[in-house]
Design brief:
This protein has 111 residues and is mainly alpha-helical. It is built from five helices and no strands.
């Protein structure tokens, strides 16, 4: 909506990596730390370009940024649906399934 498609896309990819990490199923070694920190640096660069009103160069994205995020994805994979629910439950301290039914699903009338 505001023209931050590149930033949004990259932020979501990084967020997915953190969701996978939060499950504790992946070991955080020096290479993974390097990938994560480099990914954050790329986000900072995109933010700086957006603030300046400059265009994010496709060549830079294709040559440096996308391969970095691809390596991160190859290493961690996609978050699973159950991982997302578990992460939300940890953050809120509540079972998200029950919370959704309590707040989002109308009660059925008694029959």
């Amino acid at each position: 909506m505001m023209g931050f498609q590149t930033l949004t896309h990259l932020a979501h990819r990084l967020e997915d990596s953190f969701k996978v990490l939060k499950t504790g199923k992946s070991e955080v070694d020096e290479d993974l730390k390097r990938l994560l920190l480099s990914s954050v640096d790329c986000l900072r660069e995109v933010v700086a370009l957006n603030r300046q009103g400059a265009t994010v160069e496709e060549q830079w994205l294709e040559a440096e940024v996308n391969p970095l995020f691809d390596q991160l994805h190859d290493r961690l994979g996609d978050p699973q649906q159950e991982d997302n629910a578990a992460a939300l439950a940890e953050e809120t301290g509540e079972n998200m399934i029950y919370l959704l039914f309590e707040t989002e699903v109308d009660q059925l009338p008694n029959t």
